[in-house]
Amino acid sequence: MTINQNPPDDLLALDCQNLTYSWVEGTEPVLSDVNLDLVKGDRCLLLGANGAGKSTLLRILAGKRLTKTRSCKILGQDVFMNPPGGVVYLGTEWSTNPVVRSDIVVSHFLDSVGGYRHKVRRDRLLQILDVDLDWHMHQISDGERRRVQLCMGLMGEWDVLLLDEVTVDLDVLVRADLIDFLISESENRGATIVYATHIFDGLRKFPTKICHMQLGSTPRGIITWPPADVPASEQDLFSLALGWLREDRELRRVKEKEKGRIRGPKTDTRDAKTFFEKYDYSH
């Protein structure tokens, strides 16, 4: 893993301006005028409904998808054309890789990705994530495999961390200890974290910023958390996210209706009549 040593203090950790992206050029964009700028030490929660574009954005920031416009920089460098060191992306697709489900001992697996070079941090993460070095990767649960992934990704001294729903398999205790570790990394080393999640338990102290993704855009920009004008007793991440998600759903329904698309059961009886006329099961 390449680490960016001592990036200049005057650079934004993450600078994404007016990012628009389509799967196929000329088709409707999945991301439209997305803006996300963070300073070093920020911990940003990326919130939004399924399909809002969170994973796509994180993969672009990680340099895994090429965009036509040079809209995204990390530590002053283009994320695809001149990717910076010190960036770690951890996503859900890792667990489906056949290599990580093969008969390999965890200690050998971590050493194969440089664990011996980061022994102090590796051992601290082994304890936090409750990982047994003698586990065999093909014999452990999805949650245990996820812990190994996190240990692998976090044991180097990263500058920017992009997390895409990777705590969903963790039990409450391990997740709480991991969140405490991430907070300490940002406070003590100035590391920057973008964390997409739908699980809000135990996150009250985690974010310093919140970004709401709505149908591929960021209509609210970056929100500082906790808000200075809201009493601590009323600072409820879950209620905030729930309100946004209800708003997202209504907006999505309006847009889909305009295109003649409706989710859920079909109420038009002509659909059923056409089906039974086509497939006559009376004989």
Short overview:
This protein has helices at 54-61, 106-112, 119-128, 142-154, 172-189, 237-258, 269-278, and strands at residues 14-21, 31-38, 43-47, 72-74, 77-78, 87-90, 160-164, 192-196, 209-212, 222-224. The chain is α/β, with parallel strands linked by helices. Keywords: ATP-binding, Nucleotide-binding.
Tally of individual helices: 7
Order of helices and strands: EEEHEEEHHHEHEEEHH
Radius of gyration: 22 Å
Q: In which range does the helix fraction lie?
A: 25-40%
- CATH class placement of the largest domain: Alpha Beta
CATH-level-2 architecture of the largest domain:
3-Layer(aba) Sandwich
Provide the spatial order of strands within the biggest beta sheet. 6-7-8-3-9-10
* Chain-averaged pLDDT: 87
Q: Structural class of the helix and strand makeup?
A: alpha/beta
Number of beta-strand segments: 10
Organism: Kwoniella dejecticola CBS 10117
GO molecular function: ATP binding; ATP hydrolysis activity
InterPro entries: AAA+_ATPase (IPR003593), ABC_transporter-like_ATP-bd (IPR003439), P-loop_NTPase (IPR027417)
Keywords: ATP-binding, Nucleotide-binding
